[in-house]
Design brief:
Blueprint (H helix, E strand, L loop, with lengths): L4 H4 L24 E7 L25 E9 L3 H12 L6 E3 L8 E9 L3 H5 L6 E9 L8 E13 L3 H18 L2 E2 L14 H9 L3 H10 L7 H13 L2 H7 L5 H13 L3 H5 L4 H25 L12 E5 L5 E8 L5 H9 L3 E7 L9 H14 L19 E4 L1 E2 L2 E11 L2 E14 L4 H9 L10
Parallel strand pairs: 1-4
Antiparallel strand pairs: 1-6, 2-4, 2-5, 3-4, 6-14, 7-12, 8-9, 8-10, 10-11, 13-14
Length: 458
């Protein structure tokens, strides 16, 4: 089955299911894509949970963090945090999250804020953002506290009969179950769907080509973005005039303008311009290229006919904890002596096949998967040592492993009904839970199989 070109650009070259998709469109409205974060202790950040939390908290002890729920609508995660920090008059680094959430969605997540009161949070007034305090914590949030996310997704504008939708859904879910789950690709938002360049910036940074990285981020146009943005980027690409760009780039290109303000004053200080960006965003660039390489590794395995739910000689196999989360630091390499034992552990749900997340401190798989990995890196013109980034060493990536497949938890079809926005079409409402690091869009592409992910709302 043909994969859209825009997905091949981010390393996703194949579907894991052969059944036909249902089509349709996601994210017609932010409320069509609801995300609620779940922590390892079972705490769930609720979209409509404010009324259920009545604060009766004692004053915060020294060195404690205010634990809150952040609900945002159609808002970039990092921009929301910056807005909260600016509103409170604090450094954004005092706000900590467990994971980044979708922009085109309504999302609820936990945050901790260092050294502020519940009263100061209650005074916040930010469009599209709501924060409510739920207690104090002696530790700040980090990804290690994240279990996963619960999703409520509405797919609209499905031009098939209700019976056809039901039959296709049944076949797709049956295939995913036979395969052991959903291929653990990094999803579209990791790279940008309308303008998938994050990994290209990362590759240039990894290769030490800092000016090239800056120009890709600032000026490489995309045929899918707003014409005003596209035209401004095109002129900058042709002229290299940063002062003109600062005056003419649309205000909505916030991070581009942050870099342009620096370059308009300091000419060719591209490293300095990158360092003006939030650290979380800056690190996303090399991480996106690492993710792109992982997607290529995973695509290569599927295309070669190798199982995602069984190890071959030379494969990495990662252990799972009691919650089903992979521990990337506890892994083995399959060999003739342990292959049978490892595959039995995979079948019983105690372990998972894993593929390398390339980095300067981590070796590739061996065996057939190793050959796939080496060929991909050779085609990319990249070596493992390149992930020790010259010029901006804080962006260096050590590497590791990532499960090749992710389990689909609590999946339910809640409703198949006429789409109220177009009575000729149908809509389907789904709920499911995915563990951290896994993407709803990867599951949805298997279900929908869109000809154009951009038009389909990805």
């Amino acid at each position: 089955m043909a994969v859209p070109k825009v997905e091949k650009l981010i390393g996703i070259e194949v579907y894991s299911t052969k059944s036909k998709g249902i089509g349709g469109v996601i994210r017609c409205y932010p409320e069509d894509f609801i995300v609620e974060e779940v922590l390892v202790d079972g705490s769930t950040a609720r979209i409509h949970g404010k009324e259920s939390h009545v604060l009766s908290m004692t004053p915060a002890p020294k060195q404690s963090y205010l634990l809150c729920v952040l609900v945002k609508r159609n808002k970039d995660n990092l921009l929301a945090i910056e807005a909260i920090a600016e509103n409170m008059g604090i450094n954004p680094n005092r706000i900590h999250i467990a994971g980044i959430k979708d922009t085109k969605a309504v999302t609820a997540q936990h945050i901790t804020i260092d050294g502020v009161s519940a009263e100061s949070v209650q005074r916040l007034k930010i469009p599209g953002v709501e924060v409510y305090a739920i207690g104090y914590s002696r530790v700040k949030l980090s990804p290690s506290y994240l279990l996963g996310n619960c999703f409520q997704v509405t797919i609209r504008k499905i031009g098939r009969t209700k019976t056809s939708i039901e039959e296709r859904m049944h076949k797709i879910l049956e295939e995913l179950e036979r395969n052991g789950g959903v291929p653990n690709f990094f999803g579209h938002q990791r790279f940008g769907t309308v303008r998938p360049i994050t990994h290209l910036v990362g590759k240039a940074l990894i290769q030490g080509e800092i000016e090239k990285a800056a120009m890709i981020f600032l000026a490489k146009p995309s045929p899918y973005e707003h014409p005003e943005s596209r035209e401004a980027r095109k002129i900058l690409w042709e002229t290299g005039n940063f002062k003109w760009a600062l005056e003419n780039f649309p205000e909505k290109l916030h991070y581009e303008r942050v870099m342009l303000r620096h370059l308009a004053k300091k000419g060719n200080d591209f490293i300095g311009a990158f360092r003006r960006l939030p650290k979380k965003l800056l690190r996303l660039f090399p991480q996106a290229y690492q993710a792109y390489i992982f997607n290529k590794f995973l695509s290569g395995r599927i295309l070669s006919g190798l199982s995602l739910n069984m190890a071959e000689i030379g494969d990495y196999v990662v252990s799972l904890d009691s919650l089903g989360l992979a521990n990337p630091k506890i892994y083995e390499i399959a060999d003739h002596a342990n292959l049978s034992e490892l595959n039995e552990a995979i079948r019983s749900g105690r372990k998972k096949l894993a593929l390398p997340m390339v980095g300067f401190k981590h070796k590739l798989s061996k065996g057939i998967q190793g050959e796939i990995c080496r060929k991909i890196l050779e085609d990319e013109g990249i070596e493992i040592k390149d992930f020790k980034v010259r010029g901006i060493p804080e962006l260096s990536l050590r590497g590791g492993v990532r499960p090749a497949i992710t389990l689909l938890n609590r999946f339910k079809i809640n409703e198949i009904s006429r789409d109220e926005t177009d009575q000729r079409k149908w809509r389907i409402k789904l709920t499911f839970m995915l563990h951290k690091g896994s993407y709803a869009s990867v599951l949805l592409r298997e279900i929908m199989k869109p000809r154009s992910p951009i038009k389909a709302g990805f």
